[in-house]
Specification:
Layout: H1 5-11, E1 13-19, H2 23-34, E2 40-42, E3 56-57, E4 67-68, H3 69-82, E5 86-88, E6 94-96, E7 102-106, E8 109-118, E9 122-124, H4 130-134, E10 140-141, H5 144-147, E11 155-159, H6 163-172, E12 178-182, H7 192-199, E13 204-207, E14 210-219, E15 222-231, E16 237-241, E17 244-247, E18 251-253, E19 284-286, H8 298-317
Parallel strand pairs: 1-2, 1-8, 2-5, 8-19, 10-17, 11-12, 11-17, 12-13
Antiparallel strand pairs: 3-4, 6-7, 7-8, 9-18, 14-15, 15-16
The chain binds NADPH dihydro-nicotinamide-adenine-dinucleotide phosphate (NDP).
Residues 59, 127, 159-165, 167, 184-185, 189, 191, 249-251, 296 line the site of NADPH dihydro-nicotinamide-adenine-dinucleotide phosphate.
């Protein structure tokens, strides 16, 4: 019996396997493909990454009128495929980076590769409340673009003080009647332009020095009905009635596959060599948000994906 195309990919040793499909992964794929490295890319559970759950991207050069995140990632994907990237909508479950060729597993399937480019990105952080989990999908969300629609003419809260919180609050005013922005300090971390947009929006009410103690709601049917807050200065508790809570307190790098194997910083971001995407293991490169606690922009992620592909090519040619 002739082996299927799928099993042939398992048997061969690839030049480069890319894990992740945000701007970093797709850009690495585009450059690797144009260098004739025939990259194999695994998208993970969320093809397109974080930008597929964002609204208008207004700050990616080349799109003067802005572009929707999912559409932009579809364009990235098509451009990577145009030059021969093999894209699998699959989630890598294990990697063995102890020797070359490296082993990348997807369930029972094992793939071999001379180099690996890690572009697994980052995921939303949660407050750590039990109620946040129990009401997840029933009024608690970390993605206004995905779930804002369900709160038409309702009252919602956004928790956080960074650009994500500003963006989510602003977006939610398109759907919700009132948006309460809850921040634990008395100043935002967000960029001035995003702050100004929120502060000047009459539908957004800002609650400074306010922490979240609990999200409360009904069990049958399960739905959020309110939030228990606490003044972070005086400690005074209070409750607010509302229909939904959006958590927007930042992100954590997706490094589960590599923990204990590759060097990370205190916050868990993969460490790459200065001016390089090289990790602590030769032949393994990391790009995008998984190694970037600082800039975390689509354009910087794409830039580092480009560097990773060029570095992988140079590594292979030595
Ligand atoms: P940030 O880390 O910038 O901000 C996180 C916010 O959440 C902070 O205000 C922080 O409070 C608060 N926070 C963190 N943990 C908790 C907690 N346990 N309880 C309550 N509040 C908490 O993350 P963002 O996701 O907002 O932004 C990340 C990066 O992405 C930034 O560089 C940002 O500029 C960029 N970005 C850019 C966008 C754009 O340009 N369109 C859109 C979205 C993000 P505190 O300030 O007190 O630490």
């Amino acid at each position: 019996m002739r082996p299927s195309v799928h099993s042939l990919y398992n048997l061969m040793t690839h030049h480069v396997i890319i894990i992740g499909s945000g701007p970093a992964g797709y850009t690495a794929a585009l450059y690797a493909a144009r260098s004739d490295l025939k990259p194999l890319l695994f998208t993970g559970l969320q093809p397109g990454g974080q930008l597929t759950i964002t609204t208008d991207v207004e700050n990616y050069p080349g799109f003067p009128d802005g572009i929707m995140g999912p559409e932009m990632m579809e364009l990235f994907r098509r451009q990577a495929e145009r030059f021969g990237t093999i894209i699998r909508d699959e989630h890598v479950t294990r990697v063995d980076l102890s020797q070359r060729p490296f082993k990348v597993r997807v369930g029972d399937d094992e793939y071999l590769s001379e180099t690996v480019i890690i572009a697994t990105g980052a995921s939303a952080k949660w407050l750590g409340l039990e109620s946040e989990i129990s009401f997840g999908g029933h009024g608690v969300s970390a993605c206004a673009t995905c779930d804002g629609f369900f709160f038409r003419n309702k009252v919602v809260a956004v928790v956080g003080g960074g650009d994500t919180a500003m963006e989510e609050a602003h977006y939610l005013t398109k759907h919700a009647r009132e948006v309460h922005l809850i921040h634990r300090r008395d100043e935002f971390r967000a960029s001035k332009i995003m702050q100004d947009r929120v502060i000047s929006n009459p539908k957004i009410h800002i609650h400074w020095n306010t922490g979240v103690d609990e999200i409360v709601g009904d069990e049958d049917p399960r739905r959020v009905t309110g939030i228990r807050l606490r003044d972070t200065v005086t400690g005074e508790p209070r409750e607010m009635a509302l229909d939904g809570v959006f958590i927007a307190i930042g992100h954590k790098p997706n490094i589960e596959l590599f923990s204990g194997v590759l060097e990370t910083d205190a916050a868990g971001y993969l460490i790459t060599k200065p001016d390089s995407t090289a990790t602590s293991i030769p032949g393994v490169f990391a790009c995008g948000d998984v190694q970037d606690p600082l800039w975390r922009q689509a354009i910087t992620a794409a830039g580092s994906g480009c560097i990773a592909a060029i570095e992988a090519e140079r590594f292979l040619s030595h």
